[in-house]
Amino acid sequence: MTETQSGRIILLGSAPSRDSDPTNPLLPGRSKRGTAASLLRMMEMDVDSFSIAFERLYLIPLHPGRNLGGDNFPARLVREGVARIGRIIAGRTVVLVGKKTASAFGIDHVAPFEWVQSTGASMAWVPNPCGINTWWNDPDNKRAGAAFLVALGQRAFDLCLRGMVA
Q1: How far apart are CA 138 and CA 135, in angstroms?
Q2: What is the Cα–Cα distance from 67 to 87, expressed in whole angstroms?
Q3: Distance between CA 48 and CA 53 in Å, rounded?
Q4: Listed residue (45, 141, 133) closest to 11, CA to CA
Q5: I want to staple 2 with a disulfide (CB 3.0 to 4.6 A). Which of 83, 89, 100, 122 is the partner?
Q6: Where are the beta strands (DSSP E) in the chain?
């Protein structure tokens, strides 16, 4: 992980769910379930700390729904999202949430939680921590994922505090 000029790590999710606020990415919606709520629980952070510590973005503007193979991920919207986000993330530290988001940036071949340089940014990806993803059912995966997310949350909050003091 590298330092960022803004002092905040970017969390990049694929798209807002039906109960999420698309203008306030990766915060729990009305249901208090799903990706954002799972991230908060695993990072052991409250909503306010999470909101302050991370810059949060979505790759595409609207969750397009599910099909038999999982989430739809419309190619045109993904390409547009990668182009838009690519300008924002240059020189930054970015954590991609979900393998499809990692795939959009060409790092899905990298193991989860490993840092790589891609698209001019320092990137890692985490499997989507919501209850739908069975990757988290393996106890070793869950321990490794939780340790990464707790350390990421602590690092993001420390960078944010450092930026406020400077």
Answers
A1: 6
A2: 31
A3: 9
A4: 45
A5: 122
A6: 9-13, 54-58, 66-67, 70-71, 93-97, 116-118, 121-126
**Distance (Å, whole) CA 124 – CA 160:** 19
Q: How far apart are CA 36 and CA 129, in angstroms?
A: 8
> Does residue 44 come out as left (phi exceeding 0), alpha (psi in the -120 to 50 range) or beta?
left
Q: Does the pLDDT value for residue 166 go beyond 60?
A: no
DSSP state letters, 79-113: HHHHHHHHHHHTTSEEEEESHHHHHHTT-TTSPTT
Q: What is the mean pLDDT of the chain?
A: 84
Global pTM reads 0.87
Give the chain's length: 166
101 contacts 125 by C-beta, under 8 angstroms: yes
